[in-house]
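Quick one:
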Amino acid sequence: MLCAEFEERLTDYLEGSLEAETNRAFAEHALRCPVCHELLSEVKNTLQACRTAETPVPSAEFEARILLQTVPEMAMTCEEFEEYLTDYLDGFLPATLFHRWERHAALCAGCTELPGQVVRSIGACYTYINEERTVPVGLHERILQATLGTTDAEEVRAPLAARIAARLRLWLDPIVSPQLATVATMLLVCVMVLTSTVSADGSISGMYRAGMQLAGRAYHGSTDSKAKPAADSDKFNSVGGGEITTGFIGNGSAKDSPKSGGTPEQQKERK
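Output:
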């Protein structure tokens, strides 16, 4: 094998793509020729160094400059950058706008620090809100003087209408509270049903009159039921004899009577 053919087949030999006979001839030539042997060693060492060396990563600014030179229509203005700043921080930018936005941030010196400033401002606002601040000295008195005209709040008395309204709210709060809302609704429904069914004219006074009439009927019915058993017991006791020991006399009170039917004269009169 000649040296020119050795150099031509060097890449195939290193990749292991040569045939067995050609590969043996290539190895024999590398052992016989000192120049080709040194060339083979240098190429192997170079490949080994490339494999172990770290690959440099291009910076974002370098990539942005290349894209700006090759694809100038993908550039973004500073106005568009500020317009999409909130969406970028919220994570709502589409992929195409996201990469354009980051490339502009890498290239524009005026817009590079803007996202960091906004994020630090938002964090400072949250920190200020969560921290408790002491009340400045004299602030309470100044507020009272500006609103009530005096620094002593006890000297100021609310108007009569305001006090009455406060009293009413104090009384009405238990009624309109969520815990008693169901009970109030049930009472309202009951009143509506009673006024529409019991009352003749559909008013509460009519419902009251109807209730009084029903109570009177119930009372008269109870007195009639008591009078009827009293009359029946008098009739039964007038027969005489038997084992009845009590009888209803006059207003229905019980009175003891003898177990026998009485004297012969009384039995004759009863007959």
